[in-house]
Amino acid sequence: MATQSMNMGMAELSSTEALKASIAEMVATALFIMIAIGAVSVQLAGGGVVGMAMAFGFTIALLVAGIRNISGAHINPAVTFAMMITGQTSVMRGVMYIVAQLIGACIGVLILRAFILDDVLKAIPGAGGNFLNEDIITDSWKGMFLEAMGTFVLVWTIFAVTVNPRAGSGDVAPLYIGLAVLVVHLFLIPLTGTGINPARTFGPALFLPSAAEGLPGRWDNAWVYYVGPLLGSAVAALSYYLLYLMPPKRDT
């Protein structure tokens, strides 16, 4: 519930349930990254933005449905960060989730490399497609704010359909979250490639092969894809919490 106070949750370190939930986050993130970067490689072989956005959105919807009763289905350090700062998740569990998500992202990329030729993956600019379109965006700060805006939409949707006790979204909540991811990708793919998830940037940046000559590198403007999502998630989570979830003050 949104009324709980932020806590460290040190006991989570020895909790079997927290460990199992972290493993679920790792597996789901690995699958997401594998499919996401795979979708980008398919685009290079003749796909399009709509197909990529649908792959991202529907994959998230399915993964959220699959593990939401185990871990809450964050699958994104920015989402976990939002839950931590509003007291939905303890700090220690949040750290466990984020570590699991980053590890899962690396595993997903390594699995993908086992099946797709490096020459194909080298043709993907940036960290698995995360790069600023300099024909449209002339300043990396603008890219950061676009990433923040996209993450805001995602986190606000998550709070609206899963955290708010009056949501009543039930079994369709994963679909709403998937649709939020889809819509954000339709908007941001041509601009920033769409990060909105630090794990989605982290794994590819570490383990994808170096980009072909003339393409943006994996570390170009990397800060945009970490600062932007964390900023957007914080603004969305805190504003939603303060406006709609904070208990009203009692008259004295």
Give a short synopsis of this structure.
Helices cover 63% and strands 0% of the residues. With 252 residues, the protein is an all-alpha fold. α6 runs parallel beside α9.
Question: Main beta sheet, described?
Answer: none
How many individual domains? 1
Broad CATH class? Mainly Alpha
Name the beta content range: under 5%
Poorly predicted runs of 5 or more residues: none
Number of helices: 9
Order of helices and strands: HHHHHHHHH
The gyration radius over C-alpha positions equals 18 Å
Class by alpha and beta content: mainly alpha
- Principal-axes geometry comes out as globular
* Cα separation of the termini: 25 Å
How is this fold's topology laid out?
Layout: H1 16-44, H2 49-67, H3 77-85, H4 91-115, H5 118-122, H6 140-163, H7 173-188, H8 198-207, H9 224-245
What would you note in describing this structure?
With 252 residues, the protein is mainly α. It has a single domain, classed as Up-down Bundle (Glycerol uptake facilitator protein). Helices cover 63% and strands 0% of the residues. The chain has nine helices and no strands. It has helices spanning 16-44, 49-67, 77-85, 91-115, 118-122, 140-163, 173-188, 198-207, 224-245. The longest helix has 29 residues, at 16-44. The model has no long low-confidence stretch (mean pLDDT 92).
